[in-house]
Amino acid sequence: MIRRGLRVAARLGHHGALPGGPYILPTFSPASAFGSSMDSLESEFCQEKTDLKNYALPNASWCPDMLNLYHEFLEKTKADGWIRLPSFKSNRNHIQGLKLPLVLTASSDKSDCHIFTRCIKTEGQGYEYVIFFHPSKKKSVCLFQPGPYLEGPRGFAHGGSLAAMIDETFSKIAYLAGEGLFTLNLNTRFKNLIRMGSLAVLNVGVEKVEDQKLYISCIAQSTDQQTVYAKASGTFLQLQLEEDSSQYYTLCLQESLLPTALPTGTHPRAAGGVREVTGEVREKALSFA
Amino acid sequence: MLRSCTAALRTLRALRQAGRRVPRCEPVLARRWFSTEKVIPKDHALPNPSWSKDLRLLFDQFMKKCEDGSWERLPSYKSKYTQKSEDFKTYFLDSKLVKEQLSQAQLFTRGYEDGLGFEYVIFYNDDEKRTVCLFQGGPYLQGVPGFLHGGAIATMIDATVGMCAAIPGGIVMTANLNINFKRPIPLCSVVVINSQLDKIEGRKLFLSCNVRSADEKILYSEATGLFIKLDPEKSLI
């Protein structure tokens, strides 16, 4: 716990702590975002030391095709540079210690929120999927098995469920490949229906990164690649998350590490220069002082 | 019993072909004919306690528009036991389809407890070939924290545009869906999805749609869709 607190403190570090003033959405600064900080992005995302339930693990509902390919890719994570992405109940769990720029914070932010693709809890009934990601090649493979709760035409998966799975895979890749956050465009061309309970393999790649946008494409096919289910492309807006300073104060309080004065300076992942902290954080600072 | 069932089905089909306005979904009648149980499936396209004030207001406004017959509220059931789904099964599916899967299946957008997932109702205007969907996305549809998942929006757009295509087009399938997201939709807010049939070329139906806030001031998304009318002569598999 203390180690975590110190780790958060180090990461928050020199955040620019002059409170008050209007908040300005920082322009995305690629120079500060890429390079060694991408490793920290992945490790923050994966939350390796966590008690959170990881839904991207095999269970009894997975069909043989899915299990076989899963094990094949798991082998590749050992030597070929692939990572298996964990999947938690909410995106909030993937970004602990981070938050959206305040101008985008929505008013309703309930703790019982679930990410859309993990809300059907009964094994095998909804989305069964796991995403493997290759950071240096910026490509990904998603193994997706739709269950009976995703029905559209009788016996087949709803077109919307495939679009959602594509959007979800795109969003994880966009985030890890370049801090893409919001979908700007999703273009899906449906070719064939996916039979419920069968496996669809989504091959995803980042085409280019330009003007604060990531361009990603995907082909969804059957295991034997004989049937193409859909082809899709998506565009994502790059937007940096901010450090969630409110968590810093909570942790400090718990570890009796209350600062007498906040340090100044910049954090490696920030846009550069001293950033102004929002009024909300100022309130919290005052309440703990 | 079988004879009376087939006779009734024939009547329904005849009525449709004659262009008479009949309800699109007939699960209540169907169950009485095909099963000894007297279970009336729940119509989910009606207000429930999880509906916000905005959603109820809009619902009332559209119900008023239904009074003169220009608009029609479409009922919505969890299990897709409807005439259309039976036609789909008869013409397009392999009869050896696994029965267990079908019995567990439920319509994707209706598989949640009240208020947690998709709360929506679709209204249809036959003269203008338009559908309007009033949609409230619950906390189980989250993407970026505090906002609706892009895939959930895509699902509702597919459902609304699909309905707009299916009523004139019969059994249709999504061929293409192209969505431009302008602004993220806050979770648990109410949006209005307007879909329009733009043109029909043979078996292709071209549609467009926009997603706006309840007061129509914010444009959240715009989309275009291409749907194909399925050919009963060709099987899908």
TrEMBL record, chain A:
Q: Which PANTHER family match?
A: ACYL-COENZYME A THIOESTERASE THEM5 (PTHR47362:SF1)
Q: What is this protein called?
A: Thioesterase superfamily member 5
GO process annotations (BP): cardiolipin acyl-chain remodeling; long-chain fatty-acyl-CoA metabolic process
For this record, the Gene Ontology CC terms, alphabetical, are: mitochondrial matrix
Organismal lineage: Eukaryota, Metazoa, Chordata, Craniata, Vertebrata
Any GO MF annotation of the entry? long-chain fatty acyl-CoA hydrolase activity
* Domain Thioesterase: residue ranges: 155-227
What the entry lists under InterPro entries is as follows: HotDog_dom_sf, Thioestr_dom
Q: Which Pfam families match?
A: 4HBT
Q: Which SUPFAM superfamilies match?
A: Thioesterase/thiol ester dehydrase-isomerase
TrEMBL record, chain B:
Every copy of the Thioesterase domain together lies at: 146-217
For the keyword Transit peptide, the answer is yes
Q: How does it sit in the membrane?
A: Peripheral membrane protein
Does this entry carry the keyword Transit peptide? yes
| GO biological process, alphabetically ordered | fatty acid metabolic process; negative regulation of phosphatidylinositol 3-kinase/protein kinase B signal transduction; regulation of mitochondrial membrane permeability involved in apoptotic process
Q: What is its main location?
A: membrane
For this protein, the record's SUPFAM superfamilies field holds: Thioesterase/thiol ester dehydrase-isomerase
Q: Which GO terms describe its molecular function?
A: long-chain fatty acyl-CoA hydrolase activity
Localization, per the record, is: Cell projection, Ruffle membrane; Cytoplasm; Mitochondrion inner membrane; Mitochondrion intermembrane space
GO CC aspect terms: cytosol; mitochondrial inner membrane; mitochondrial intermembrane space; ruffle membrane
What keywords does the record list, in alphabetical order?
Answer: Apoptosis, Cell membrane, Cell projection, Cytoplasm, Fatty acid metabolism, Hydrolase, Lipid metabolism, Membrane, Mitochondrion, Mitochondrion inner membrane, Transit peptide
**EC code(s) of this entry:** 3.1.2.2
Name a Pfam family for this protein.
4HBT
Reaction(s) the record says it catalyses: octanoyl-CoA + H2O = octanoate + CoA + H(+); tetradecanoyl-CoA + H2O = tetradecanoate + CoA + H(+); dodecanoyl-CoA + H2O = dodecanoate + CoA + H(+); decanoyl-CoA + H2O = decanoate + CoA + H(+)
Gene3D superfamilies in alphabetical order:
Hotdog Thioesterase
Give the protein family: Belongs to the THEM4/THEM5 thioesterase family.
Q: What is this protein called?
A: Acyl-coenzyme A thioesterase THEM4
| Source organism (scientific name) | Monodon monoceros (Narwhal)
